[in-house]
Amino acid sequence: xxxxxxxxxxxxxxxxxxxxxxxxxxxxxxxxxxxxxxxxxxxxxxxxxxxxxxxxxxxxxxxxxxxxxxxxxxxxxxxxxxxxxxxxxxxxxxxxxxxxxxxxxxxxxxxxxxxxxxxxxxxxxxxxxxxxxxxxxxxxxxxxxxxxxxxxxxxxxxxxxxxxxxxxxxxxxxxxxxxxxxxxxxxxxxxxxxxxxxxxxxxxxxxxxxxxxxxxxxxxxxxxxxxxxxxxxxxxxxxxxxxxxxxxxxxxxxxxxxxxxxxxxxxxxxxxxxxxxxxxxxxxxxxxxxxxxxxxxxxxxxxxxxxxxxxxxxxxxxxxxxxxxxxxxxxxxxxxxxxxxxxxxxxxxxxxxxxxxxxxxxxxxxxxxxxxxxxxxxxxxxxxxxxxxxxxxxxxxxxxxxxxxxxxxxxxxxxxxxxxxxxxxxxxxxxxxxxxxxxxxxxxxxxxxxxxxx
Length: 454
Description:
The protein has helices at 3-16, 54-57, 66-79, 91-103, 117-134, 155-160, 185-188, 201-216, 242-252, 305-313, 330-345, 348-369, 403-413, 435-451; strands spanning 33-37, 40-43, 48-51, 108-114, 142-146, 177-180, 221-226, 256-260, 284-287, 299-304, 373-378, 383-387, 416-417, 419-421, 424-427. It is α/β, with parallel strands linked by helices. Helix 8 (201-216) runs parallel beside helix 9 (242-252), helix 12 runs parallel beside helix 14 and helix 13 (403-413) packs across helix 14 (435-451). It is globular. The chain starts with a helix and ends with a helix.
């Protein structure tokens, strides 16, 4: 495409298209993508980039998989859409729900489908409130989440999200939502002093949930929602004992535990679902992104056997009155089934664990060689570099220095496409990314850090 034609496309974009997180100041020289193949993206000018974020944390099987495209096309030729409202169903939705029951946590065997992560969060929150409402505990409506959490930006999901930029211009938030601090080990563990109640940083961080429940009143709290690894907040991996204590607290105070596995699900961390790393099961599980590897929009929630039994045994007048037009969409479910076939054929979850270990080692080498890398962290094919002015004291750069933005710009110039959250540069490449491609990612970041004198 000529420079003139490209400028015309960008001008049309500026006039007619409203983007997620829209503002012209960040969209003056956008990438116009035209092709994806494996771990490589190609823009309209023919320049190629390693996809360091798997689209938006979601293209787990990589780009250009014909198997998924063909599954969608076949289904659209046969039955493109059918309602899944009560009294109607379709084979793909049934088969996908049954298959997910074999992959998810043992106590989660029933699924409701949405179009994405935000809808999944809203569905989980409504289900938690419904669960207590049916049992006559009508005051149990409050939702506790965490600072730096990302759960989507529909109104309820936005209220659970713990990153103020996502709700500061849309307030007020929905009443009944509260946040506790993130376990963020880089800062939470620093200078930690153990006590009898909180002998480790992980237990201390989890006990903040107990404090919040007691402050609000256990008889008013419906659920706690958490990402196993906080993704958009900066790839924050919790302490090893954090979620075990969270589960204990939820059980003690009769609070449902919602796991938001939208980013961490479907092999991203080297397990099918990430709470499995810590031997913990949720009551409700959100999912999206990797269930179709982003080829078509699909999400959902899985609920525990206890919740499903309650839904099935209430009188009709108290039915679970929640619905979306595109729930159980036969075409999206067909693509999801093809996506899971690809996972099985290529043993992608084990591959993600193996390649992920190589990625984590590469990121740690950058921490060792660059003093301004305050921490390299991650799990599986999910990683981050956090830049600090001074590592020993955890002193951050002046925000005006925009070090994270500069690192992202340097990496982009060298052919790596991802994003930063403040001074944290995040990575989540496709699970099909090769060891050689991981080495290229690490080398690009090495050169970029050197260029920034980091």
